[in-house]
Specification:
With 310 residues, this protein is an alpha/beta fold. Helices cover 35% and strands 15% of the residues. Strand 1, helix 3 and strand 2 form a beta-alpha-beta unit. It is globular. The termini are far apart.
């Protein structure tokens, strides 16, 4: 081997674990664009969908992202997240499609016991209505296998039947990372490009790429009450109950969903690098540590997914 060839090999940058995860996700996004007629990227303004958006930018540069952004708004989202969602979509010049659980309630396709009920699970109805209305044949989401055991059963390309239902026994093999997105009219696939990522890797990527996020993800002071081992934010939707003492603590959100079911954790992490350092030592998953609906719901995540949930 010549000296020049040796020098070339020595100078070649070493690919990190994040580089491999990024390459895999970009490949998956390009497979969706190549195989599907009318895909959409689910974008809520949260950290996972913000990572997806950065990956989509990289996958299709210098052109625009070749599919719309779709958000299912529960009507109980944090205002900071909605403002960030709109600003991010506008900055990219991306088409943002918003469908609301409120619209489904007015149509009578979603019925809640009370106005204060969590609308998190009800999003699946509105999502399926949006997919049918707009004839999407693929919905790209930011779910990860480390979030919950039911998600670990799902393929990267998760097939849904004409009723939007998921059946683990009907999932297609993905040997050698070969993906099959073919569907008949009325069917669709959910696609999870960061399925193999962990919460820690998401934050490491956010820190490396300098990805902007809503301020809720970083330490701020907020009134909370302690309930069932969780810190419940004090809001008009989640007021303190009789006998609960309101405390003002330094907290951050690990995930930002419906206000009525999303809880913060105590934290002093004011930037992505500090969040990475905190995440290394956590023992509970995001959902286990911050989601009231997962702790109190009688409906398992697997059943929700069978019914069309994200």
């Amino acid at each position: 081997m010549s000296a020049a060839a040796i020098a070339s090999r020595v100078a070649r940058p070493v690919r990190t674990h994040l580089d491999w995860l990024e390459s895999e996700a970009i490949h998956i996004l390009r497979e969706v664009a190549g195989q599907c007629q009318n895909p959409a990227l689910l974008f809520s303004g949260g950290k996972d969908s913000s990572v997806l958006l950065r990956l989509a930018e990289k996958a299709f540069r210098p052109g625009r992202i070749p599919f719309p952004l779709l958000h299912i708004d529960t009507g109980h989202n944090f205002p900071e997240v909605l403002e960030f969602r709109d600003r991010r979509a506008e900055g990219l010049g991306a088409r943002l499609v918003v469908r609301s659980v409120e619209e489904s309630i007015r149509r009578g396709t979603v019925r809640l016991r009370s106005q204060s009920d969590s609308r998190n699970a009800a999003q699946s109805v509105t999502l399926l209505e949006a997919i049918a209305e707009l004839s999407f044949d693929a919905a790209i989401g930011g779910a990860r296998r480390d979030e919950e055991k039911a998600r670990a059963k799902e393929r990267v390309f998760s097939f849904r039947d004409e009723f939007g239902q998921w059946n683990p026994r009907d999932q297609r093999p993905e040997l050698w990372s070969l993906y099959n997105a073919r569907v008949r009219p009325g069917e669709h696939v959910r696609v999870f490009p960061i399925s193999n990522w962990t919460e820690l890797e998401v934050w490491q990527y956010i820190a490396r790429e300098g990805i902007e996020l809503p301020s809720l993800y970083f330490a701020h002071r907020r009134p909370v009450v302690r309930r069932h081992g969780l810190l419940v934010p004090v809001t008009p939707l989640t007021p303190p109950r009789a006998g609960e003492a309101v405390e003002e603590l330094s907290v951050r959100f690990r995930t930002v969903g419906d206000i009525s079911c999303t809880c913060p954790v105590e934290s002093t992490a004011g930037d992505a690098e500090a969040v990475v350092a905190e995440t290394v030592s956590v023992r509970l998953t995001e959902r286990g540590a911050t989601r009231m609906d997962d702790q109190t719901s009688e409906v398992s995540m697997e059943r929700r997914k069978r019914e069309g949930y994200f």
